[in-house]
Amino acid sequence: MDFSALFFAFFSGIVGSALGPVMSFVMCGLWGIAAVVAAAASSSFNFLALFPLGPFFGPHVAFGGAVAALSYASYKGYVEDGRNIVMPLMGIGKADVLLVGGVFGLLGHLFKFLSEFMLPGKVDPIALSILITGCIAKFMFDKSHKIISSRPEAEKSIGSRFSSKLESTWVPQMRPPLMMTILAVGIGGIVSYAMSLMLSNPEVGNIAAALMFLMFAVPFILFLIGLPAPVCHHLAIGAGYGTAVSGGSILWGIAGAVIFCYAAELLSRIFWSYGDTWVDPPATGVVFGSFIMLGILPTFNYYSIDPYILPGLIIGVSLIYSFNAQKKLDQYNAKKAA
C-alpha cells in the first residue's frame, strides 16, 4: 500500500466536502471519461488510478468523505437536512466539517485497500468502502446512533419495510416498480451491448466496465439544477460486471443491471430509510450485487454452465413482479386520492 496516498486522500476528503457529495461525484465522472480516453490513447500514465478511482476524486474518498461531513454537520446542527447531498459544504463556514470529510476520505482509501486485500476480485472495493464509511458515519452522527433505524409506527399499518407503497424512498422518481425495472433493462441493454463490443478489443476491454460506471456519474449534474434525474451508475456497473464476467453475454449484462437495481432499492429500506444521514443505496446495491456476480457465481463456474436460463429468469421475474406491484401501487394511490 502506498501510505502517502492516505495523506492525499485526507486532502481529497476536504475538497470533496467543500464541493458537496454530488458535485464531487460529478467531478469523478468527468475526470473518469478523460482518463478512459487517455488510456485508450495508450497513455503511459494511469489517470484512472489517480483521479476517478483513486485518492483524488475516487467516490470512496471524495464522495464518501463529503457524505460523512454532511452527516456530521447535521449532527452538530449546522444544517437541517443530513441527506441534502447536493449541498456544497463550503457554504456552512465551519472548518471542522471539512476536517471530518478529510478524516473519512482517508478512511475510505484505507477501507478500499483492505477490501482489495481481503476479498480480491470478489466484491467491488470502492462500493464496499463507501458502505463502511457511511455506516460508521450513521452510527456516530445519526440521532438514533443506529445503523438500521427503527420504523415509525404510523408506517407499519401501510405495509412492510420493503413495500412499494411507502414514500420514504431515496429517489422518489424511481419508486414506481415498473419505472425502476424498465430503466434497469434499458441501461443494462445498452451498456451490455457496448461492453460486448469493447471486450473484443484488447486496447479498451480492460477499462470498459469502468467507463460504463463513470459515464453515468456525469448526469448527476441534473440534480444540481433541481431536475428529477434517474440514478443509473449502479445499474451500469452491474451490467458491466455481468457482461464482463460472463464473457460478453448481453443477457447476463441486463440481468446484472436488474440485480443491482433491486439490491439498491431493497437494501435502501434497511440502511437508508428512517435515518438522519445518508448511507448510499447505489453503493450498498453494488456491494451485494458484485459479491453475487463476482464472488459467488464464478466460484461454481455458473456463467459457463448456464448462459441463458438464470439470467432470463431474473429478467422475466423482475418484469412480472414490477407489473403486478405497479398495478397494486396505482390502486393504492387511487384509493388514497379518493
Describe this structure in words.
The protein is mostly helical and 338 residues long. It has 2 domains: 1-144, no CATH class; 160-338, no CATH class. Helix content is 65%, strand content 0%. The chain contains 15 helices and no strands. α5 crosses α6 (125-141). The longest helix has 29 residues, at 309-337. It is globular and about 55 Å long. The model has no long low-confidence stretch (mean pLDDT 94).
Poorly predicted runs: none
* Beta strand count: 0
Proportion in β-strands: under 5%
Distance between the termini: 61 Å
Q: How would you classify the helix and strand content by structural class?
A: mainly alpha
Radius of gyration: 20 Å
State the helicity in percent bands. 55-70%
- Please describe the biggest sheet, giving its number of strands, its sense, and whether it closes into a barrel: none
Overall body shape:
globular
- Total domain modules: 2
Mean pLDDT comes to: 94
Write the SSE topology.
Layout: H1 4-19, H2 21-40, H3 47-50, H4 59-76, H5 95-118, H6 125-141, H7 153-156, H8 177-198, H9 208-215, H10 221-224, H11 233-245, H12 250-271, H13 281-296, H14 302-305, H15 309-337
Helix pairs in contact: 1-2, 1-4, 1-5, 2-4, 2-9, 4-5, 4-6, 5-6, 6-13, 8-11, 8-12, 8-15, 9-11, 11-12, 11-13, 12-13, 12-15
Short description:
Helix content is 65%, strand content 0%. By secondary structure, it is mostly helical. The model has no long low-confidence stretch (mean pLDDT 94).
